[in-house]
Amino acid sequence: MAALTPGSTGLRRALVPLGYPCPVPSDLLLEVQGLSKAYDGVHALEGVGLQIRPGEVHGLVGENGAGKSTLIKILAGNVVPDSGSVGMAGAGLNLGSVQASLDAGISVIYQELVAFLDLDAVENVFVGREIRRFGIILDRARMRERTSQVFQRLGVGVPLNVPLCDLSVAQRQLVAIARALETECRLLVMDEPTASLSNREVEVLLATVERLKTEGVSVLYVSHRLDEIVRICDSVTVLRDGRVVETMPASSVTRERLIVSMVGRQIAAQSQSAANAPGTVVLEVRGLGRDGAFEDVSFSVRAGEIVGLGGLVGAGRTEVARAIFGLDRIDSGQVLVGGRDVTNRGVLAAVASGVALVPEDRQHEGLVLPLSVKDNLLMAARERLARRGWIQRRAERTKGDELSTRLMVKAASLDVPVRSLSGGNQQKVVIGKWLAMAPRALIMDEPTRGVDVGAKEEVHSLVTRLAAEGAAVLLVSSDLPELLELSDRILVMCEGRVSGELARGEASEEALMALAVHREERAVS
Amino acid sequence: MKAFLGRFRQEAVLLVLLAAFVAVAWRLDPTFLTPKVQGTLVKLVLELAVIALPVTLIVITGGIDLSVGASMSLAAVAFGLAAERGTPWPLAAVCALVAGALAGMLNGWIVSRARIHPLIVTLATMSAYFGLAEGISRARPISGFDPAFQSLVAGPLMFFVLALAAAGAALWLSRTVKGQAVFAIGLNEKAARFSAIDVDKIKFWLYTLAGTAAAVAAVSYAARRNTVKADIGHGMELDVVTAIVLGGTSITGGRGTIGGSLLGILIVHEVRQFVSWHWERDEINLIVIGGLLILALVANSAFGKKTDSA
Amino acid sequence: MKKLPARELGVGLVLFVLVLAVQLANPAFLRPENVRDLLIQCAPFAIMACGMTFVIILGEIDISVGSMAGLLAAALGTWASPSHGGRPLLDCVFGVLFLGLALGLVNGLLVVFARVPSIVATLGMLTVLRGVTELVLHGEWVTDLPPFIRQLGIGVSGGVPNPVLVALLVVAVSITLASLTPWGRRVYAIGSNPEAAKVRGLPVKQVKLAAFALMGLLTGVAVLVSAPQLSVVESGYGTGWELFVVTCVVVGGVSITGGRGSLWGVLLGVALLSIIRTALIFLRLGDQASYWERAIQGVLILTAVLGDRVSARRRAEVGA
User: Fold this and answer.
1) Which of A388, A413, A517, C226 is least surrounded, with the fewest CB atoms within 10 Å of its CB?
2) Does some domain include residue C151?
3) Is C320 helix (H, G, I), strand (E, B) or coil?
4) Neighbouring-strand partners of residue B269
5) Which chain C positions have a beta carbon within 8 Å of B123's beta carbon?
6) Nearest Cα to A72, choosing from A187, A230, A183?
7) What is the predicted ipTM?
8) Residue A122 and residue A164: Cα distance in Å, rounded?
């Protein structure tokens, strides 16, 4: 049963644990063993094992950052694990090669669709491995026929001759599925396939998955929507902090049990005993809406208060943060800072009125990587330290030293490129950039994502200290313990709306998750 | 500090290149190095250098301005037509400056507002400005300007203007908040916007400045040659871009110096003048300049890759 | 693919109105011999625009084609003229085609392997090739093109002028290439989403290289039917063609950022631009016409790009 390995691989096998061909029992399609992967010393996956039978729909759930996407990327061949093995249909999978994964019959449909919007469905299905006549001419008729066959098989109708940009997101998703099926895939990995679908579209997709199952195709179904998982999966694996918590058969799966299992850990002792005495309202948002992103969002943050903004990825939290900061156009509602209206006035006006944003994407939006630590620290505050626009070197150096000491930035010197710093220290520089301005309202979007444990604690104490000093903090985070520990109260967003507010006393991970998940699901449960 | 070291290294390399070229030129043709010949060469180089200053800044932001030659033509024609109608020369010079500034403003406005790639924008406006210059002047030469104007502007004045502008630009770039922002924009425009740097405003004014500088060059040209025509700026953009890239400014933005560009200009110009002087063949010049540009670009992209991985 | 010809329709409408207006102003405009001249005139540009369409859909650009045409014309002249090379017809034809292909490949290599942005790389080539042309011709004119060469440009086959015939052929092949071959669809795919193309393992480098080579080859074809229309070849031949061709392609609805556009639209663009050229003469603007032509070209390209931008924004919103 074990795949016969050529001599060279045999040698490699002795030296390297990667691509280790493991014996797979014949009744398993996929067998993952001991998969580990660390980024900058932080474990994304640790000894993960997973087994999928042919024709099984296997659910994979976990909080944001639990390691789901790393696992998917390893299966797709985009990421090489540090150790562990993957067996596919009785043969060892050569890890780290997209082609090998495809050849083994693994197709991945990513959350952000990798589609050619200017091409039609048929072309999207076949581009790169076209059917030809006489070697050069496209056999459009046959490709069309095969595409429509796939769609028939799926029991859906998708226009074949329309560029994808004119199709709905759901239809594009179906095209991606069709493409996967055309490559004779045996394991289809779907990453949050329903994240941007309407209810009816979700039904079509779920029916499609059911149909695939009857055809013997296995599906690894990754979703936050627990009701979907409960409904269509044969078994479910729960990941938490890069480890498998448990794998349970469908019969024992319930929504409640999944939530408990996902959240699992002891809720961290709340370090901050008393909420700060709230001051005056600094940041106020009234009925904020941006078409296609969020609607009717209202809240206020007082001086000295930390308000958490929870919810799932894609709930619209980052979009709200961007809009308040003046980056995106607001279609309705108002943003008031200290009573002044800064709606749609742009970033400069927002910053001038005292708003600061620590963005989600540190490397692309927060920092200019090749520039020095000092240049990055002072990027926003320079104007204030300067005299009529001329840089005051001594003042800058003093300020830079002061900031880096205060933030405990670990860098060889302030003149090294910020690129050379660790993730946690880079994040401190991004925060420091705004500290130099003494912001009145500080918006932080995932401030500790990809930051190691030590630096995380430092960032947390920094946030508390800033609030104690009188800043109004809006904390967007998918890290539930972090949100619960730091926030005085938590607003939860779901599908572009605020679905509820939890005061410090009543906030728990379960309560938060319940507000964050799909609204229809809540209605049902 | 590290930026300083890098800057001087770049300029040292260029100086060595220039010296090597001069040595070879001297071996081939000693007459080329006489003060008289070199003196005239330097005069020719002034106009190119004036334009190169703002364009260097634009390239550092990650942009490019291909319309500077056309803006120069437009400004020159504006000057010529005004002077022809008896306008006193200072006023005519103002006309030229306004024309150049407006041309630059249109570029800046489209680039920063509509966010279309500056290459396409300035390629189109290059055509539009040349066409406009040809149209309003009917492509005829206009000559015979005030002798006082000629002796004043064509004299050392232009040299002082350049020296002042170059020093100003270099200082601005390294010592002001906006100057430092130029690098940030070129390296990561998104992060610059997230840091409340007014990217659009800076771009707008840099393109306006480039148009204005082209007009200054046009006035200088008019004084030096006592004649203007709609095609005087033809090919200027290429010389300027070649010199800038040769001077170590990254064509994709984020890296570059004023000193490097000036040395680049000097090298481009010495080479091209030597070619015309020694072989008396202008066509070789085109090959040399284009070849230099391509070589500089290839070297630039190879060098850029190296620093990225470091 | 051809579902949303809004842009093409727009260009077609403008074209129609323009033709109508010029015809009303000057009834001589649509006389058969004038239409024939017009077709012969725009044939080489149609040929080059086909090549440029692929390059621009890929998200690249080639602005060296004007000088390339100049050099190829000079090569054709010196090879063919009895006082210089005196080569036979086939030598000349294949020589020009091969040289065009080689020059296109050089552009492609610079862009793909040296990773120089195509606009500046081809800008350098624009200058170099013009210099080489002048070097080849020594500033002289080739005046003794042999009749068999001149036939390429002024001859008629089966009632159709040779340039028009060749252009029709090239257009037909290009349209086939664009819509009926894997290569053509990959061009669209790569231009549409370069990242996805990489993820899907499409041969991005090879496709780009081939597009630049094709551009060179088609420039050769264009020169073969256009240079012999005149009795002399001089070193300024082809000056400004690059901008004209790019304008045609962009006005014809090809997105300058790649991915979108059709050859049908480009053909309309070629027709529109060529007619504007002639119309300026027919509207009796006299020598004014040639002065303003460049300005009009520039304004047109700006308008087209701005329009493209607006529609791209609308599209992005629909997609989001």
Assistant:
1) A388
2) yes
3) coil
4) none
5) 63, 119, 243, 246, 301
6) A187
7) 0.83
8) 10
Confidence of residue A241 (pLDDT cuts 50, 70, 90): confident
Closest chain A residue to the Cα of C319, Cα to Cα? A165
Contacts of C132 in chain B (CB under 8 A): 283, 287
What count of Cα atoms within 13 Å lies in the side-chain half-sphere of residue A117? Answer: 18
CATH topology of domain B2-301: ABC transporter involved in vitamin B12 uptake, BtuC (1.10.3470)
Number of structural domains, chain C? 1
pLDDT of A192 over the 90 cut = no
Residues C86-97: tens digit of each pLDDT = 889 899 999 999
Nearest to A432 by CA among A465, A408, A456: A408
CATH of the domain at C159: 1.10.3470
Number of domains in chain A: 2
**Do the Cβ atoms of B294 and C118 come closer than 8 Å?**
no
> Which of A121, A77, A83 minimizes the C-alpha distance to A100?
A77
What number is the average pLDDT over the span B37-65? 88
Strands A235-240 and A243-249: antiparallel
Amino acid at B256: G
The helix/strand/coil state of B61 is: coil
**Segment A37-66, tens digit of pLDDT:** 887 666 788 899 999 999 899 999 887 667
Residues 6+ apart with CB under 8 A from B206: B54, B57, B58, B61, B63, B108, B182
Looking up tokens 């961007």 gives A322
Contact between C304 and C283 under an 8 Å Cβ cutoff? The reply is: no
Residue B19: burial class (beta carbons within 10 Å; 0-12, 13-18, 19+): exposed
Positive or negative, the CA dihedral A91, A97, A99, A102 is positive
Q: Are residues A170 and A291 in the same domain?
A: no
Give, in order, the Cα–Cα distances in Å from A380 to each of A319, A450, A489, B197, B219: 22, 24, 29, 7, 39
Q: How would you classify the pairing of strands A489-494 and A306-311?
A: parallel
Contact A137 C181 (CB under 8 A): yes
Predicted confidence (pLDDT) at residue A272 exceeds the cutoff of 80: no
> Hey, of C128, C277, C292, C296, which one would you mutate to test binding to chain B, going by the most B CBs within 10 A of its CB?
C128
Q: Rounded distance, CA A231 to CA C319, Å? A: 30
Nearest residue in chain C measured CA to CA from B74: C295
pTM of the prediction?
A: 0.79
User: Which residues of B fall within a CB distance of 8 Å from A348?
Assistant: 196, 198
Mean pLDDT of A180-195: 83
Q: What is the mean pLDDT of chain A?
A: 83
- How far does chain B reach from its first CA to its final CA, in angstroms? 17
Strand, coil or helix: what is A282? strand
**Mean pLDDT, chain C, integer:** 86
The verdict on a CB contact (< 8 Å) between B293 and C124 is yes
Return the number of other C-beta atoms located less than 10 Å from residue C278's C-beta: 17
Q: Which of A182, A200, A225 is the last residue of a domain?
A: A182
Token code pair at residue B237: 């953009």
Tokens 């469908």 identify what position?
A250
The per-residue pLDDT for A308 is 94
pLDDT tens string C189-234: 999 988 888 777 788 999 999 999 999 999 999 999 999 998 888 8
Q: What integer pLDDT is reported at residue B304 of this predicted model?
A: 58
Give the closest residue to A430 by CA, choosing from A462, A474, A398, A453: A462
CB neighbour list of residue B33: distance below 8 Å, 6 or more residues apart: B22, B25, B26
Q: What is the pLDDT at residue A521?
A: 47
